[in-house]
Amino acid sequence: MRWKFKTSQKHLDKLLEEAMVDCYAEYEAFIGVVTTLDGKLPFPFEAEALGETVEVK
Description:
Number of strands: 2
Largest sheet: 2 strands, antiparallel
Helix content: 40-55%
Number of domains: 1
Distance between the termini: 20 Å
Strand content: 15-25%
Radius of gyration: 13 Å
């Protein structure tokens, strides 16, 4: 799949790594990732899921 964000895949990987650095349980990692993505991604944006274009809000 082609990357459509202005943010590079490498930068996104770094954000995810930082979001989970001190997480011990799965729920902590989930909350860290959601919080980080909410603050850093340009919402709303379009994505492809199951072959369909969707808007992520």
